[in-house]
Specification:
Elements lengths: L7 E7 L4 E7 L4 E7 L4 E8 L2 E9 L5 H16 L19 H6 L8 E4 L3 E5 L5 E2 L39 H7 L25 H15 L5 H4 L13 E5 L11 H15 L3 E7 L8 E11 L2 E12 L2 E7 L15 H16 L1 H4 L12 E6 L5 H10 L9 E6 L7 E2 L18 E4 L3 E5 H8 L2 E4 L2 H6 L10 H6 L4 E3 L30 H16 L9 E5 L8 H12 L4 E6 L3 H13 L4 E5 L3 H10 L2 E4 L9 H7 L3 E5 L2 H6 L13 E3 L4 H17 L1 H13 L4 H16 L4 H14 L13
Parallel strand pairs: 9-10, 9-14, 10-13, 14-15, 15-19, 19-20, 21-22, 21-24, 22-23, 24-25, 25-26
Antiparallel strand pairs: 1-2, 2-3, 4-5, 6-7, 7-8, 11-12, 12-13, 16-18, 17-18
Pathway: Glycan biosynthesis; starch biosynthesis
GO cellular component, one term: chloroplast
Catalytic activity: [(1->4)-alpha-D-glucosyl](n) + ADP-alpha-D-glucose = [(1->4)-alpha-D-glucosyl](n+1) + ADP + H(+)
Length: 759
């Protein structure tokens, strides 16, 4: 299970009839029960306090995956709507007055098993109103109509699980361990809470009639709560507890793409069925998170520091914010302050983040360290995999917990003098992990280097960037370490949050003359947004003139100086240019200068506005991204989603995501140039402008192809899941030895996936 579960599973099989029944018990409620038969399909019902609140379709091995899944989900929806057919057992016999159809099809002495379908489900309610339903089971079964209670059933002790006698779910494992295992024999049905041992057989005819009647009554049952409930996605056998740790998380804190990733990727992973948490600092008084009353003390550089935790649950994700005086009132300068202060903040953050699954309950239950994977992001959290190994794995704790380190920008590494090692609180033999020789600065302390060496897997935010960081030019001194462990490196292109960045629903396009649009209304919708943007910025409102935009930090990396070199050529063309960003003071002044010199053609917006960024993306025809290096880049994805054509420098994620336009095959999404040079930018932009003016059909095809792409996080989440699974089954030498010792004592086989050993 993805979360820490306290229930155990037992299996009852009538081998002579190939009937397979599965259920899960806990002391406060009987969790689930299902029976599988000939069609090899089943349904798992989950119930709490007598109310059906969730159902999970399950598939039995041997079925076609797609057909089985669709059939099971469809059947599950129908069966869930029959919740009114399930009633509480307050005595030996279920009160059948609530369902007259059952009187016609069943004898009143029917046992506490309610078969609603010959191939789908069996549910039983206990005294406390809970329902038994199935756990995931794989088997081939025959005919459910031939199930008969074993003759030995009456000789076995009953399992009595009343809410009065059980205090919490945490006791279920202990309870089942103390129960005589002979009570659950493979050829008998479970002994349900009832004082009567009588059983009534359903003949095949009765069972068929009952199934028909039950399914006919489905159309008469309408429950809005059930109808609005969608079946959870099937994530397979590798459902995990995932904790993403980042120094920023949108919308609460954001300085760049990292905040977007921390706010969106977890939601996509949660949609795949995983239990997901995000851990970030609490820089300000956020509205949604609430103090959960947990306090922990950590020692940082000889000082005791208290951390409190705030929690909110949004879109299937637990968001945990760490509150401490070191983080407060820094929302406008997250990475500001002296180097020593920044290091202390990150040390405290990583130390506390590792222990979050132990001490911070989400929904009343901690994540625990079973089936757990951490996703650390950039150098700010690169200490997390180091602490996981040094403080826990080396001491026999969290042995099977894994860590993934994501590189968003390798240029920032957490460097400092070797004396900084004293502040991280690690054993002396870990000092060499942090040593890195720089040809310019000599030997120095490097946090990213230690994180790369100790993480189980390393991910970058695009395939192109994964290749670049292996090179001398792109690795920024870490290329040697990356090449030594390149087997654990993988590039995964970021996605975009389709709730925030979608021209059909964008809230920033619903006023001031802007309008929402789709691929069907692209032409009039984008023309209206263009006119509204020109009017808002004080530019001449002209539909025929190409409107070009730039959104980004004003620094050397983003290539603003390359645009500045190309400005004289641009001003000789009939076009308009809009630039939005903040950064280096000299480049900010350059934007103001451009606007003063070319007031009818250029607008330079110094600063950043989310609303303006959305409106520029929707209103411009062309977006420039001449970045010298770009690990992934999101603005080009936003642009294509809004029908805006990107002109980009083919580096990193820009190369991966912007396929160059091919006029002969009418393919591609934009234009690229191969070096960070103004002449190359002018050449690519010139071809783009020619197509805009002379080849309207090709231009329209470019825009539509861009909008038709699936740029959501769902694709990226699937690839992240593959990396998490690879890390999950990656065994360290000590772990494999532990498995071998345990298997020799209990005849337990080593999994196939445990064959890979790190040396």
């Amino acid at each position: 299970m993805a979360s820490i579960g306290c229930s155990s599973t037992f299996i009852i099989e009538r081998k002579s009839r190939h009937v397979f029944t599965s259920s899960t018990l806990s002391p406060t409620k009987i969790e689930n029960l299902a029976v599988f038969s000939g069609s090899t399909r089943g349904v798992s019902l989950f119930c709490n306090r007598g109310q059906l609140w969730r159902f999970k379709p399950v598939r039995i091995a041997g079925d076609d995956p797609e057909g089985s899944l669709q059939f099971t989900i469809k059947k599950s929806k129908k069966i869930a709507e029959t919740r009114k057919l399930v009633s509480s057992l307050k005595s030996n016999i279920t009160d059948l007055d609530e369902n007259e159809a059952f009187h016609e099809q069943r004898d009143k002495s029917l046992p506490d098993v309610d078969l609603t379908s010959s191939s789908s489900i069996s549910t039983v309610e206990g005294k406390n109103g809970s329902i038994l339903s199935s756990s995931h089971v794989t088997s081939t079964v025959k005919d459910i109509s031939e199930i008969q209670p074993s003759d030995e059933a009456g000789d076995e002790p009953e399992v009595h699980l009343s809410s009065e006698k059980a205090s919490s779910d945490l006791g279920s494992t202990k309870l089942l361990k103390t129960t005589d295992s002979k009570a659950f024999k493979s050829d008998m049905l479970p002994s349900f809470p009832s004082s009567s041992s009588d059983a009534v057989l359903l003949t095949s005819v009765e069972n068929e009639n009952l199934t028909k009647t039950s399914l006919e009554m489905v159309g008469e049952v309408h429950d809005p709560a059930v109808e609005s409930t969608k079946p959870p996605p099937l994530a397979g056998a590798n459902v995990m507890n995932i904790i993403l740790v980042a120094a920023e998380c949108a919308p609460w804190s954001k300085t760049g793409g990292l905040g977007d990733v921390a706010g969106s990727l977890p939601k996509a992973l949660a949609r795949r069925g995983h239990r997901v948490m995000v851990v970030a600092p609490r820089y300000a008084e956020y509205v949604e998170p609430r103090d959960i009353g947990v306090r922990k003390m950590y020692k940082v550089d000889g000082q005791d520091m208290e951390v409190s935790y705030f929690h909110t649950y949004i879109d299937g994700v637990d968001f945990i914010f760490m509150d401490t005086p070191m983080f407060r009132h820094m929302q406008y300068n997250i990475y500001g302050g002296k180097r020593e202060d920044i290091l202390k903040r990150m040390v405290l953050f990583c130390k506390a983040a590792v222990e979050v699954p132990w001490y911070v309950p989400c929904g009343g239950v901690c994540y625990g360290d079973g089936n757990l994977v951490f996703i650390a992001n950039d150098w700010h959290t690169a200490l997390l995999p180091v602490y996981l190994k040094a403080n826990y794995r080396d001491n026999g704790l969290m042995s099977f917990t894994r860590s993934i380190l994501v590189i968003h920008n390798i240029a920032y590494q957490g460097r400092g003098p070797m004396e900084d090692f004293c502040s991280v609180g690690l054993p002396d033999h870990y000092k060499d992990l942090f040593k890195l020789y720089d040809p310019v600065g000599g030997e120095h302390f490097n946090i990213f280097a230690a994180g790369l060496k100790t993480a189980d897997r390393v991910v970058t935010v695009s395939h192109g960037y994964a290749w670049e960081i292996r090179t001398l030019e792109g690795g920024w001194g870490l290329h040697g370490i990356i090449n030594e462990c390149d087997w654990k490196l993988q590039g995964i292109v970021n996605g975009i949050d389709m709730e925030d960045w979608n021209p059909q629903h964008d809230v920033h396009l619903q006023s001031d003359g802007y309008t929402n649009y789709s691929i069907e209304t692209l032409q009039p919708g984008k023309a209206q947004c263009k006119a509204a943007l020109q009017k808002e910025l004080g530019l001449p409102v002209r539909e025929d003139v190409p409107l070009i935009g730039f959104i980004g930090r004003l620094d050397h990396q983003k290539g603003v100086d390359i645009i500045a070199e190309a400005i004289p050529w641009m001003m000789d063309q009939d076009l308009q240019l809009v630039l939005l960003g903040t950064g280096r003071q000299d480049l900010e002044e350059l934007l103001r200068q451009f606007e003063d010199q070319h007031h009818d053609k250029v607008r330079g917006w110094v600063g950043f506005s989310v609303e303006t960024a959305h409106r520029i993306t929707a209103g411009v025809d062309i977006l420039l991204m001449p970045s010298r290096f770009e690990p992934c880049g999101l603005n080009q994805l936003y642009a294509m989603c809004y029908g805006t054509i990107p002109v980009v420098h083919a580096v990193g994620g820009l190369r991966d995501t912007v396929q160059p336009f091919n006029p002969f095959e009418e393919s591609g999404f934009g234009w690229t140039f191969d070096s960070a040079d103004a002449s190359k930018l002018i050449h690519a932009l010139g071809n783009c402008l020619l197509t805009y003016r002379e080849y309207k059909e090709s231009w329209d095809g470019l825009r539509r192809r861009g909008m038709m792409q699936d740029l959501s996080w769902d694709n990226a989440a699937q690839k992240y899941e593959e990396v998490l699974v690879a890390a999950k089954y990656q065994c360290q030498v000590g772990e494999l030895a532990e498995i071998l010792v345990r298997s020799s004592c209990s005849d337990e086989l080593v999994p196939e996936n445990a064959a890979s050993v790190d040396k």
